[in-house]
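re the bet — no i am not wrong, look at it urself. input seq straight from the record:
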Amino acid sequence: MVNSSNIILKGDVTGDGKADFEIQVNNIHTLDLSDILL
């Protein structure tokens, strides 16, 4: 769980260990694994 007001989600789709994309989420207070659907 993340407790913050702004977070950045990073994802690696090629498997090389480097982030291939980033999504910034602003003004969020809690984020749990169940909030993310891939």
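see?? The longest strand covers residues 6-11. told u. also The chain has one domain: 2-35. so pay up
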